[in-house]
Design a protein that fits this description.
The protein is an alpha/beta fold. Helices cover about 45% and strands about 10% of the residues. β1, α1 and β2 form a beta-alpha-beta unit. It has 3 domains: about 150 residues, no CATH class; about 80 residues; about 70 residues, no CATH class. It has 13 helices and 8 strands.
């Protein structure tokens, strides 16, 4: 892809000194590695809504479903200030065409999960930060993640796959939007979908097949909603193995007995946890190029994101 993906991110994760104590939480993978392929849109809700640096620490208080954002020592309620700012910021972000957002874990404003919520003398863990909640409500299809889950290679791979897919989808939706374009988009993502959710792949195939009976906007909306839900499911070793074997089937009449044996062995080694996914993928890419298998050359499963991100070296 020639243009960079645009992602929102909590400003502190890029090294900006905006936290309540004047510090930052620079994440080197996000800044140095993923940053090569991303145009960041940094957001610090607490600073942008008018609070100073440094400032009194805040926490979520009350009902976990609709908590208040309150300073820890003085008890000042900043909820309405945050919500008023968020409403305007979300409208501005619509113009950015974000393909994802990375939140700061457990922040009372930016945490997307497991934020502490205080009620009386008790403390719950199921809260969502005020800004994160409003963002996810306003942009329900945009992939989101937090920096804590980025340390899990499988979750990191899943999120990055989704942002690249969402970027391709936006390119299609804004520059094409045709039924023919949707068929092409679906076709090129079939094996990637198979690795996440065979059920979703089947449902989307049926949706595309009856697509001419729907209005184009309704069809695109239904397609992307179902696709993004299916892609949230992790591509497990078993599901990847099924896809690898499916791809290998395209070469059963082309490979020599020795090549077949090598391919079967490499896939088995991946299935057994002896080698990462990049090993069988690299071998299959070799055969795709060697035999010019056009259908497979177009499959994003074999090239879902830049090699420099080193994702398939770990899963």
């Amino acid at each position: 892809m020639n243009d960079k993906i645009k992602l929102g991110i909590s400003s502190c994760l890029l090294g900006q000194n905006v936290r309540y104590d004047g510090s930052h939480q620079l994440d080197h993978y996000l800044h140095d590695t993923l940053g090569q392929f991303v145009d960041w849109v940094p957001v610090c809700p607490e600073v942008e809504c008018g609070l100073p640096v440094p400032r009194e620490a805040m926490r979520l208080v009350g009902d976990s479903g609709s908590p208040r954002l309150v300073t820890q020592r003085t008890g000042i309620d900043h909820t309405e200030r945050m919500l008023g700012w968020a409403e305007k910021r979300l409208v501005a972000l619509e113009k950015e065409r974000l393909c994802g957002f990375i939140f700061k874990i457990k922040s009372p404003s930016s945490g997307m999960r497991d934020v502490k919520v205080y009620k009386g003398t008790g403390v719950g863990m199921g809260g969502v930060g005020i800004w994160a909640r409003e963002f996810m409500r306003h942009f329900p299809l945009v992939p989101v993640e937090d920096d804590g889950r980025f340390h899990d290679p499988g979750l990191r791979e899943n999120f990055i796959e989704r942002i690249f897919i969402f970027h391709r989808w936006q390119e299609y939706a804004y520059n094409d939007g045709s039924m023919r374009g949707l068929v092409e988009f679906h076709t090129r993502h079939k094996l990637l979908l198979m690795a996440h959710s065979p059920k979703t792949l089947s449902e989307l195939g049926a949706l595309v097949a009856r697509g001419k009976k729907m209005s184009p906007p309704a069809l695109r909306d239904a397609y992307m909603r179902a696709m993004m839900e299916g892609l949230k499911l992790k591509a497990t070793v078993q599901k990847n193995t099924n896809v690898l074997q499916h791809i290998a089937g395209y070469f059963k009449k082309l490979l020599s007995p020795e090549e077949k044996a090598e391919l079967v062995e490499v896939v088995a080694h991946y299935h057994g946890g002896l080698v990462p996914l990049i090993v069988p993928i690299t071998l299959l890419q070799h055969y795709v190029r060697k035999y010019q298998e056009l259908y497979l050359m177009k499959q994003y499963y074999l090239n879902p994101h830049p090699l420099e991100l080193l994702l398939r070296n770990h899963v």
